[in-house]
């Protein structure tokens, strides 16, 4: 099948810069970095898109995977994503966005293809720039802010000490999910991972 020969584009959503590195909003970057590490790929500046990119294959002879961390801020992520999808000739159905999700409790992962953006500016920008909502989303639950904290402040704050105890495991599990989507398909990944 021709589609299998086309690369996949994994987009970790986040904000560039050290001050944002451990924020809840940057969990997409954390997952992309781990997947890159697993496939032995290093991030570098892309010549055509405002993004850091790493390239490799999933397993011996496996599908090509392009990993991206947009260097724009979250709400402008779509431009670099669309440029990379065009550059690598990635069909929109083989674009995977990994992002934080307020509407899912901390520690839960959900996957879907298409649908609304749920107020997530990174997704909104991607949908607009790609001209489609039909890309895969790996949604990393961060839960709702405590008390009356503004959601905008909450997503730009670091994970709590309690959350950090599980964070490494959850980022690892998210990387497993991404690999499962690419190698076994979205439906298989949903059945395997939606339980936890």
UniProtKB/TrEMBL annotation:
A molecular function (GO) held by this record is: peptidyl-tRNA hydrolase activity
Catalytic activity, per the record? an N-acyl-L-alpha-aminoacyl-tRNA + H2O = an N-acyl-L-amino acid + a tRNA + H(+)
Say which family it is in: Belongs to the PTH family.
What gene does this protein come from? Answer: pth
What are its E.C. numbers?
3.1.1.29
Q: Describe the task this protein carries out.
A: Hydrolyzes ribosome-free peptidyl-tRNAs (with 1 or more amino acids incorporated), which drop off the ribosome during protein synthesis, or as a result of ribosome stalling. Catalyzes the release of premature peptidyl moieties from peptidyl-tRNA molecules trapped in stalled 50S ribosomal subunits, and thus maintains levels of free tRNAs and 50S ribosomes.
Listed under subunit, the entry gives:
Monomer.
Q: Name one Pfam family in it.
A: Pept_tRNA_hydro
Q: Which HAMAP family match?
A: Pept_tRNA_hydro_bact
Annotated Gene Ontology cellular components are: cytoplasm
Marked site (Discriminates between blocked and unblocked aminoacyl-tRNA) residue numbers:
15
Task: Tell me a GO biological process for this protein.
Answer: rescue of stalled ribosome
Q: State where the protein is found.
A: Cytoplasm
Instruction: Check the record and name the CDD domains matching this protein.
Output: PTH (cd00462)
Write the protein's name.
Peptidyl-tRNA hydrolase
Tell me the residue numbers annotated for binding tRNA. Answer: 20, 73, 75, 121
Q: Which PANTHER family match?
A: PEPTIDYL-TRNA HYDROLASE (PTHR17224)
């Amino acid at each position: 099948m021709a589609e299998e020969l086309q690369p996949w584009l994994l987009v970790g959503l986040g904000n560039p810069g050290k001050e944002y590195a451990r924020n809840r909003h940057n969990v997409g970057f954390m997952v992309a970095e781990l997947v890159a590490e697993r496939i032995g790929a290093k991030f570098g500046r892309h010549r055509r898109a405002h993004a850091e990119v790493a390239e490799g294959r999933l397993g011996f002879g496996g599908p090509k995977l392009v990993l991206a961390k947009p260097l724009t801020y979250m709400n402008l992520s779509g431009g670099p994503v669309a440029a990379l999808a065009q550059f690598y000739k990635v069909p929109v159905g083989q674009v995977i966005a990994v992002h934080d999700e307020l509407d899912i409790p901390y520690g839960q992962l959900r996957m879907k293809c298409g649908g609304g953006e749920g107020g997530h500016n990174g997704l909104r920008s991607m949908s607009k720039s790609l001209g489609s909502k039909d890309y895969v989303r790996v949604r990393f639950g961060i839960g709702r802010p405590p008390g009356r904290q503004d959601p905008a402040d909450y997503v730009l704050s670091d994970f709590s000490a309690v959350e950090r105890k599980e964070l490494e495991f959850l980022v690892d599990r998210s990387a497993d999910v991404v690999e499962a989507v690419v190698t076994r398909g979205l439906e298989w990944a949903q059945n395997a991972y939606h339980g936890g």
